[in-house]
């Protein structure tokens, strides 16, 4: 009697699908720990890169006055053929749809009622409202959820929590190739009399520092004066324009990408 051939059987189990979005830990201010607020996103595909046909950069910041320097950037990119978007571009005249707030993704992941980021926490009373943090749960509780929480079906109309920034569209135009001339400030005074050699060197160093600072700031003002209302300067691989000579990072101050490649400048934002 021939022995039966053993066949391997694989079993499948249903588990919640992880959402590939930054969670509360990644969206907390490094200084105060409060949730960061979404500031802007830039659609910036890379020509010649098949894996970056769709590419978005997302910038978040802390809204607390002492921590306004706390910024964090996230990147998301996809090839042209992917499971989320059509291969062909959308119609220029899409049919109007009813505007609604989506607080749950198709993967089943819930979003915070205050900021729209991942909301793994829930209200312990109704288990219907989701939040990214205790701070946003407290804010929503004060602005109406305390009364709505006792209802059988939660009203998904989201109140204005005064946390998100007003929404605008960033319109892109090419900067004219005008290089403003920087007029160096001439010294209009003389130091007479004899000085100690150390003091003379110190004054000379201060003068050079002031001259360099003035040149940097004058160049900044001249460049911005061409388009005073600009809020974004995008130029992958170009040089940033500095407002001051203080705290300009050196090449060794900029960490490499996790893949090992050196990072390059891509955009800067005006407040």
Automatic annotation (TrEMBL):
Q: Give the UniProt entry's GO cellular component terms.
A: cytoplasm; nucleus
| The organism of origin for this protein | Marmota marmota marmota
Principal location class: nucleus
Q: Tell me yes or no: is Lipid biosynthesis among this UniProt entry's keywords.
A: no
- Please cite one Gene Ontology biological process associated with this protein: apoptotic process
Molecular-function GO term, any one: zinc ion binding
* UniProt-annotated location(s): Nucleus
Q: Which Pfam families match?
A: PDCD2_C (PF04194), zf-MYND (PF01753)
Keywords of the record: Apoptosis, DNA-binding, Metal-binding, Nucleus, Ubl conjugation, Zinc, Zinc-finger
Q: MYND-type domain location, by residue?
A: 112-149
- Tell me where on the tree of life, at the top rank, the source sits: Eukaryota
The name of this protein is: Programmed cell death protein 2
What is this protein for, i.e. what is its function?
May be a DNA-binding protein with a regulatory function. May play an important role in cell death and/or in regulation of cell proliferation.
UniProt keyword Lipid metabolism, yes or no: no
């Amino acid at each position: 009697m021939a022995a039966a051939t053993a066949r391997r059987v694989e079993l499948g189990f249903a588990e919640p699908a992880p959402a590939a979005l930054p969670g509360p830990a990644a969206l907390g201010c490094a200084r105060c720990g409060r949730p960061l607020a979404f500031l802007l996103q830039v659609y910036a595909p890379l020509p010649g890169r098949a894996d970056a046909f769709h590419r978005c950069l997302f910038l978040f910041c802390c809204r607390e006055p002492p921590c306004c320097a706390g910024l964090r950037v996230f990147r998301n990119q996809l090839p042209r053929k992917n499971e989320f978007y059509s291969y062909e571009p959308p119609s220029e005249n899409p049919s109007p749809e009813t505007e609604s707030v989506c607080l749950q993704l198709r993967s089943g992941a819930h979003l915070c009622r205050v900021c729209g980021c991942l909301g793994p926490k829930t209200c312990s009373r109704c288990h219907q409202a989701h939040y990214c943090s205790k701070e946003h749960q407290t804010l929503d509780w004060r602005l109406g959820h305390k009364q709505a929480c006792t209802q059988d079906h939660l009203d998904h109309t989201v109140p204005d929590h005064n946390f998100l920034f007003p929404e605008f569209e960033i319109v892109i135009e090419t900067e004219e190739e005008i290089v403003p001339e920087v007029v160096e400030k001439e010294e209009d005074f003389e130091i007479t009399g004899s000085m100690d050699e150390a003091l003379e060197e110190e004054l000379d160093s201060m003068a050079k520092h002031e001259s360099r600072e003035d040149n940097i700031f004058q160049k900044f003002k001249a460049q911005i004066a061409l388009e005073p209302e600009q809020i974004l300067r995008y130029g992958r691989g170009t040089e940033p324009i500095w407002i001051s000579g203080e705290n300009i990072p050196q090449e060794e101050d900029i960490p490499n990408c996790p893949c090992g490649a050196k990072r390059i400048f891509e955009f800067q934002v005006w407040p």
